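F.,

This is the one I mentioned.
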């Protein structure tokens, strides 16, 4: 019994130790809507905000802690892409309303603390300016 309990505790601590949650603070956002003509509107004026965004890789989800919590369940991770100017991480997910959503984090190489996250579905795109707060392992 003691060996089973010890093994269980070891596995739980190993799992918790390997789980990664990345934390961000959004400082501003802007929105674009899809028109009936199939074109996107111009980005709205950037609005200041203070909300948290978490990427929880162990649960395969993004959570945006806005007034109405936005939950995005990730079903596909795209390989990280790098250009001379930026690094791009893309995640394919489903939001709380069942809409397919693409989430893209863009990190300029010149200033790696200035990130943006784009959340796009068939109705709208939201871009948040981010500050990376760190990760929990």
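My design for it:
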């Amino acid at each position: 019994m003691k060996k089973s309990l010890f093994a269980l505790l070891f596995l739980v601590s190993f799992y918790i130790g390997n789980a990664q949650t990345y934390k961000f603070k959004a400082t501003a956002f802007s929105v674009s809507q899809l028109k009936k003509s199939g074109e996107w509107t111009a980005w709205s004026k950037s609005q200041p905000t203070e909300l948290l965004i978490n990427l929880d890789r162990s649960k395969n989800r993004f959570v945006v802690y806005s007034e109405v919590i936005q939950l995005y369940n990730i079903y596909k991770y795209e390989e990280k892409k790098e250009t001379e100017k930026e690094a791009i991480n893309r995640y394919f997910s489903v939001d709380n309303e069942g809409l397919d959503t693409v989430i893209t984090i863009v990190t300029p190489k010149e200033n790696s603390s200035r990130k943006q996250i784009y959340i796009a579905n068939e109705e709208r795109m939201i871009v948040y300016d981010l500050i990376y707060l760190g990760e929990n392992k």
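The chain is about 10% helix and 55% strand.

Talk soon.
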